[in-house]
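Here is an idea for our session: we take a single protein and study its fold together. To get us started, please write out a protein record for me. Start from the sequence, derive the backbone structure tokens from it, and show both lines together. Go ahead whenever you are ready, and we will take it from there:
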Amino acid sequence: MIVWPRMQNVLLGISAFVIVTLFWSEMCYGFDAEGMRYSIKFTEHIQFLIFNFVCTALAITAICYRKQYILQVRVCIINMLILLGYQIWLMVAFFQLKSAYTFTIYTLVPFVAITLHFLAIRYSWRDATDVIASDLHRKMGKKQKK
């Protein structure tokens, strides 16, 4: 049974779920001359598929480091940078294809995941400083008793 005792794990779980939704979502759609609708999914482009896999794996890895706060922060920062590159690549695709296609709201998912990772970093960092402060307080208490 998985226990979600910390807020950062909940935020990272939501982020992983949001990124996983891109595997089944449309990136953009358009209409041909006859009025037929056609679409492009994220999984049809290998670079977006790789970004989806890597970002999902890093979000799940960050959840697994729930007791190692500093390592969890580092994994989140790496994932944020990759998500930023993903969002920039989607923006480039938008400006290249905006005359022929209409982009969906799912193209903003990396930005949402970046925001969730940033909030998770804040909670994780707060927990790390609490652990460090309690260790220092315990060590200082032992020195004063001697």
Observations:
- Strands lie at 26-31, 37-41, 102-103.
- The first helix runs from residue 7 to 20.
